[in-house]
Amino acid sequence: MADDTTDTKSSNQMWGGRFASGPDAIMEEINASIGFDKKLFAQDIRGSIAHATMLAHQGIISAEDKDKIVHGLNTILSEIERGNFEFSRQLEDIHMNVEARLATLIGPAAGRLHTARSRNDQVALDFRLWVKEELQKTEQMLTRLIAAFLDRAEEHAESVMPGFTHLQTAQPVTFGHHCMAYVEMFGRDRSRVRHAIEHLDESPIGAAALAGTGYPIDRHMTAKALGFREPTRNSIDTVSDRDFAIEFLSIAAIAGMHLSRLAEEIVIWSTPQFGFVRLSDAFSTGSSIMPQKKNPDAAELVRAKTGRINGSLVALLTIMKGLPLAYSKDMQEDKEQVFDAAESLELAIAAMTGMVRDMTVNTARMKAAAGSGYSTATDLADWLVREAGLPFRDAHHVTGRAVALAESKGCDLAELPLSDLQAIHPDITDKVYDVLTVEASVASRKSFGGTAPSEVRKQIAFWRARN
Ligand code: ARG
Asked: What is the pLDDT of residue 291?
């Protein structure tokens, strides 16, 4: 809490010119971001090197000062990387920590680095660079996850399983087809990532505090040096904008939702009641009291991480929604949300890739379940349309009666004797038994994007070519 000694503290060495005293202890605590934005040290130093190089190129600072600055910044980079750097909370954030150390290392030349820039464009730059790298990492991780699914899909292009709607057995599908559904989902996530990289690929540095600068800077030069396509076009927007962070979080939330649905399926599939898959020991845990148990903790945690990511998205949207242009300090709260979501997303994708690669698929259990619950009833109805010329609605009704009869006899549709079927509709012949097996059912669904193994293989080839 505030105490009398506060007033005797010296004012901030970086911006304290008009302040007679230092901040209250609570002020320092609420204001400081160094605890988390030190993660941006490499981006901050890269940005400063590009900025100083441009300043010298434009004759705004001397080549000699630039050399000292660049050398000093590289020293600081290796100090931080080796863990030899003392971060100070009094210096608030990563930008001022680096600059203060630079002053200690090279003296007055350090004071020239901040010419023609502000922490507002500096933080926008650092954070953009960080998010861009994270998006690139996410793209690669999604590619590996997709590759894992493609392998499983190929292996199981013919393995029959029940397809569900309402989590009730609907129609037989192949496990390969089910895997390919996730390939589509993660493929969309990956294209969202690629678009987001394109959106954010503009350099903020040189927007300065909000209005640009009177110094003859070259923003195209810094943009190029930092690997951006071009500089941003409006200095006010540049320092106010956190869309790139929100886009990252939205993409993370959508990908998280996909991962969480998969996690939920794995949880269900690995129960003894389903027994469709068995997780590897590497991705499951035991119970401390029940020796028989094998728990899908990794899948459950992926499901939970998604909740965290959603929280971060809502937090940042809420932080930003009331802010007048341009920069407000509220925006400092953007980083922890993104850092936390990035960590959660990386872990979730990595864990899922491992689970998908390692899990044992019990094709016998899947096949048995695929045939239960009258899953080929639609095939019977379609047969009646095709072979007996019934309108689909009538065929649906006839089939319903056959299902009811099988249910009362406690048998499958394929186990009903022909005489029973003919009593329901005289045009039924013994040819009908050809479509009542699960294999015949999936093989017949050859429509584009359908579950027939031949179609699934086409989709696998399509994705292999673009993965
Ligand atoms: N630590 C600050 C942040 O993360 C840096 C920008 C500070 N700018 C300012 N005008 N106080 O947003």
From this structure: 73
- pLDDT tens-place string over residues 252-270: 999 999 999 999 999 999 9
Residues 6+ apart with CB under 8 A from 125: 43, 47, 203, 204, 205, 226
Q: Which residues of the chain have pLDDT under 70?
A: 1-9
CA atoms within 13 A on the CB side of 19: 15
Residue 3 is predicted with a pLDDT of 42
Q: Which of 88, 287, 372, 454 is catalytic?
A: 287
Beta bridge partners of 168: 165
Asked about 287 being catalytic, the answer comes back as yes
Please give the model's pTM, rounded to 2 decimal places. 0.92
DSSP for 309-331? HHHHHHHHHHHHHTPPSS--GGG
Q: Specify burial of residue 396 (Cβ count, 10 A radius: 0-12, 13-18, 19+).
A: middle
Q: Whose CA is nearest to atom 2 of ligand 1?
A: 332
Please give the distance, rounded to the nearest whole angstrom, from the Cα atom of residue 236 to the centre of ligand 1.
15
Check residue 7 and give its pLDDT: 44
What single letter denotes the amino acid at residue 247? E
User: Measured in angstroms, how far is the CA atom of residue 425 from the centroid of ligand 1?
Assistant: 78
- Best of 120, 131, 325 for a ligand 1 pocket test (most atoms within 8 Å of beta carbon): 120
Residue 398 confidence (pLDDT): 94
**Residue 375 to residue 427: CA distance in whole angstroms:** 22
